[in-house]
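FORM 7B: Structural annotation worksheet

SECTION A. Query
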Amino acid sequence: METLTTLFSPWLQTELQPLLLKELALLAALLLLAWFITFQLSRFASQASVLFGRSVLDGVLFPAAALALAYVVQVVFLKHQTPMLFKLAIPVLWSLALIRLCARVLMAVFPVSPLAQLTERLISWLAWGVAVLWITDVLPLVANEMEQIQLHMGKVHLDLRTVFEGVLSCGLVLVLSLWLSATIEQRVLVHTVTDLSMRKVATNVLRASLLLVGLLVALSAVGVDLTALSVLGGAFGVGLGLGLQKLAANYVSGFVVLVERSVRIGDYIKVDGLEGRVTDIKTRYTLLRDPSGRESIIPNDMLLTQRVDNLSLSDPQIAVHCHYTVSTDVDIEQVQTLLGQAALQSDRVLQDPEPQAFLSKVDAGGLEFTLVCWVADPESGYLKTRSQVNTAVLQALRSAGIELPRAQQEVFWHPAPP
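SECTION B. Predicted structure
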């Protein structure tokens, strides 16, 4: 209790209470004005964004506007007195704005990433910790102590404060780069680039370029010599040439596929025994969703080096083959007619071209017929269609008195030993 009384003793003095009430009124007024500005601007926002979030006070704009107004009020109305309440309010608003910025950008760019959620928590703890040090005037002492801790890496001499500031600067620049790339994608590329694959290429190139430029700017701002990165670039090139050939081939193949548009998002393809619809094309791999709902990861290199059947670039009609064996004493034309009529009972089988039945095999076990029918939606799968056709064929054969041959059992006789 004594510690709290000592900390807040200037606030409890009688002569300072009017000044404290003045700061409290100014703080309440600027928060109300920041809310009003944010509310008015949110009326022009079509959806939740980084600035506004899910509600008016959930985005970056409210703490940023309140922080800007706090500095204006401090300069205009409190320039002849030492601020007390604003000494607490400004660090809190800085921490809140930083947390909101990082959280909203990470949620917009990586909506379901557990790593993004962990990063958000770490940034929150760090921001509130710095705010506490700032409010208690311990931050300069901590910064001076960090300067005394020297780090020696060859000819490079750095102190812990420089490293800490460099990490913070790089993180902030990376977050701003991700925000800028996401904003350009949503506001510009969505309306100007109609092709989904080309939009994906533009987004990847834009995000990589902004991240690279932002990282270089952040490193230069903290005094890191960028010429030292040439050694890292050379080592990275050697690694690509020796151990990362397959990885580099997949990355290059991804950009080639997106630029050539031989395979596009939404196409129904068949590759390496897998068949399904392309749901996304990453820089390294392609996601393929089969009719059963299972997603497969296809390396982009396979899309260039192996045969790919793109069913979306041609006629989407696919032939479904069904095989039936009947006894040898049947009327062949009657069976063919029954099979064709039975196939049309399925709602997915097309009437044009009409189903056709062919005598594909003759042996002692019976006559094998192959029924070929066509469907226009192969992405829905073939199992339901085959089930409907087989059920209709079985009923038609039974109604016509045509029996399916039974499996023959072989009996082996072994003479008794003498």
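SECTION C. Observations
The chain has 14 helices and ten strands. Confidence is low (pLDDT under 50) at residues 1-8, 409-414.

SECTION D. Sign-off
Analyst initials: ____
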